[in-house]
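Q: Here's a chain of 76 amino acids. Please give me its 3D structure as tokens.
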Amino acid sequence: MDETMHHPHIARCWHEWEIDGRERRIILVVETDVEMQPEADGYDAALMEEVRSAAVARMRATSSAIDRIRIVPARY
């Protein structure tokens, strides 16, 4: 399957707006089950980079003008 549409460690994605006065930024929020804290047990820098790369690919594949990506831990 195309990496831009599916990644085994990306649980969900959505867009949020960040408003600052008259300025609006669109943020692609990517929820992952990968450990994000380098000091934590189970942290894998290569796997985190894979999630980041998949998020960037997803951003590039969308027709929306995305200003930022935010990767957040999955909440079950």
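Q: Can you summarize the key feature?
A: The longest strand covers residues 10-20.
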